[in-house]
Every structure is written in C-alpha cells, then in structure tokens.
UniProtKB/TrEMBL annotation:
Cellular compartment(s): Cell membrane
Organism: Smutsornis africanus
Keyword Glycoprotein recorded: yes
Residue ranges crossing the lipid bilayer per the database entry: 109-131
Membrane topology: Single-pass type I membrane protein
Keywords for this protein: Cell membrane, Disulfide bond, Glycoprotein, Membrane, Receptor, Signal, Transmembrane, Transmembrane helix, Transport
Higher taxonomy: Eukaryota, Metazoa, Chordata, Craniata, Vertebrata
Protein name: Receptor activity-modifying protein 3
Length: 138
C-alpha cells in the first residue's frame, strides 16, 4: 500500500507544470502592443493622469497575468516585472513626482509665529488668575 501511495505522489509530481519562461516572453509583447494601441487614444499630455487610462492599464495587467498563467508561471514574476517596467519607462518616464522643497521662514516671521501663541497663553493665564481672585465682583 505504501508503495502505491508513493507511486501516486511521484506521478503527481511528474504532472506538475514548470514555468515556460520562453513562451511567456514570447506572448507578453502582444500585451504591450495592445496597451500601446489603447494608449494612442489618450493624449500624450494626459499620460501622467491615471484616471485617463486606468481601464487600459487594467486590461494590460490582466493580459500579462493571463499570459503568465498560460505559460504555467506565477504572476508577478521577475521576467513579467521586467517587461512591465519597460512599458512604464516607455509611457510614464516623464511622470516624475515633483517633490516640494520646504524651507524655514525668515527668522522675523518664525519668531513672530512662536511669540504670538506664547503671549496669548500668558495673557489668558493672567486673566484667569485675575478673575479667580476677583470672584466677589463676578
């Protein structure tokens, strides 16, 4: 019985499909071509606005996932990621996010912005103490 069970496990192992990377790399460019055709419908000035092409990008992603699965490859995998990165470089290389460089305000403004709340706090404390001592009038 153990021999039959082991033979069954060995047979199951032999039926396992391995990733056919060459097939996947052969099929992925069709996804890229389809995405390129869809992106021609979008003005190139709007390529950095995801809402303009999100449906096309979703179809592209589904296509790459489907082709990877047909080739018995998991998705994402390094080869598929490399292909997707190439598509990103082709279409979105000019979409860098501009980082705002923050600077401290000039010292005069900074001192004013610090002193105003400090002075208001001191004035409020003084007013509360003064009013608490003069409770007979209130």
């Amino acid at each position: 019985v153990n021999g039959l069970v082991m033979l069954g496990f060995a047979g199951a192992r032999q039926q396992t499909n391995f990733c056919n990377e060459s097939l996947m790399l052969e099929k992925l460019p069709a996804c890229g071509k389809s995405f390129e055709e869809m992106m021609k419908k979008v003005d190139s000035k709007k390529w950095c606005n995801l809402t303009e092409f999100i449906m096309y990008y979703d179809k592209f992603t589904q296509c790459t996932e489907r082709e990877a699965n047909i080739a018995s490859c998991f998705w994402p995998n390094p080869l598929a990621e490399g292909f997707i990165t190439g598509i990103h470089k082709q279409f979105f290389s000019n979409c860098t996010s501009e980082k705002v460089h923050w600077e401290d305000p000039p010292d005069e403004i900074l001192i004013t912005l610090i002193l105003i709340p400090v002075m208001l706090t001191c004035a409020m404390i003084t007013l509360v103490v003064w009013c608490s001592k003069r409770s007979d009038i209130l």
